[in-house]
Design the sequence.
């Protein structure tokens, strides 16, 4: 598939105490730029794809930094709108040992969340594009976020551009307003070609539980999704078992209508940063999807990129194609 990958969603700033400190212990905060869709754009750009971000940033020094970091990652920022208002923030207390990381959002009333769909040149951004990538975070922001997500879907459909939707269910966001996530997400998934989501996401969409265990339950859920959503062609997911904050076991799975592949579970140890690893998985899957890879290639590439992202601080995954190709689940010595 040729053409740019267009990513639509809100960019955020992450503020964290250095080391493994609690917020109440902090005298300073580290700041990095991120956001689910921007993370995918940056990861695909690092792998050699042309990517374009559609978002709105405030015309402030913080907005300038977000745009500059995105551009430095190789993402086309010509369709980043600017306006008045504030950046969305989130604060993360990094976990350690058996203490998990904790996130607190401060993004209500952000410039993006309050933006009108007319602020974005979606038609221009999607002209000649290969794919639109978006997530369930945008509609979770509130009624205006729902309108923005619908506008992006409508623009992609008008341009004949396939859609990848990452469910990215954020309970804190959906529960902060009188929302109906099942209804909204079902509408969006109905338009998608690719869904990044597991059996729990499909249970939410279809309002039913799935029997069985492991791979059998996942396939049962995927087949139900394929039956309910005729446009859907691919479902990708991961399974994560947390041993401690710096030791996870992860497996990946990709299902198409005609094939499926589930990887073996790998140990990811010495974790530097958990945030953005799901977006790295999505980017790895899309890297192979855009190249015509099969279910096995997509699942294994997604898992490899997700595993490598755990070794990088910050939200963006900046792993290049060469380093991805050299990935080994056993790690390795210095490459000279």
Sequence:
């Amino acid at each position: 598939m040729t053409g740019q990958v267009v990513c639509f969603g809100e960019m955020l700033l992450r503020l964290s105490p250095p080391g493994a400190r609690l917020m109440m212990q902090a005298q300073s905060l580290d700041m990095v730029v991120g956001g689910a869709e921007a993370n995918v754009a940056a990861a695909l750009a690092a792998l050699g794809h042309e990517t374009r971000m559609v978002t709105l940033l405030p015309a402030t020094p913080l907005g300038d930094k977000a745009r500059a970091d995105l551009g430095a990652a190789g993402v086309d920022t010509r369709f980043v709108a600017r306006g008045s208002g504030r950046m969305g923030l989130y604060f993360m207390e990094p976990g350690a040992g058996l203490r998990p990381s904790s996130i607190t959002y401060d993004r209500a009333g952000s410039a993006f969340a309050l933006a009108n769909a007319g602020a974005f040149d979606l038609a221009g951004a999607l002209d000649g594009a290969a794919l639109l990538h978006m997530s369930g975070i945008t509609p979770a922001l509130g009624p205006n976020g729902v309108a923005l997500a619908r506008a992006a879907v409508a623009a992609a459909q008008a341009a004949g551009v396939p859609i990848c939707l990452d469910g990215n269910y954020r309970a804190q966001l959906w529960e902060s307003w009188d929302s109906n996530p099942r209804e909204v997400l079902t509408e969006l998934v109905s338009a998608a070609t690719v869904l990044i989501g597991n059996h729990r996401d499909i249970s939410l969409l279809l309002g039913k539980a799935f029997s069985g265990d492991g791979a059998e339950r996942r396939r049962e859920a995927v087949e139900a999704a394929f039956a309910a959503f005729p446009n859907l062609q691919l479902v990708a997911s991961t399974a994560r078992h947390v041993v401690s904050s710096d030791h996870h076991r992860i497996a990946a799975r990709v299902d198409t209508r005609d094939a499926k592949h589930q990887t073996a579970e790998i140990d990811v140890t010495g974790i530097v940063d958990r945030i953005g690893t799901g977006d790295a998985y999505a980017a790895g899957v899309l890297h192979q999807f855009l190249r015509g890879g099969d279910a096995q290639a997509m699942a294994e590439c997604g898992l490899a990129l997700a595993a490598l992202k755990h070794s990088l601080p910050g939200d963006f995954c900046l792993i290049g194609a060469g380093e991805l190709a050299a990935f080994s689940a056993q790690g390795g010595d210095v490459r000279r």
Remarks:
- The two ends are 34 Å apart (CA to CA).
- The mean pLDDT is 94.
- The longest helix spans residues 143-159.
- The first strand starts at residue 5 and ends at 8.
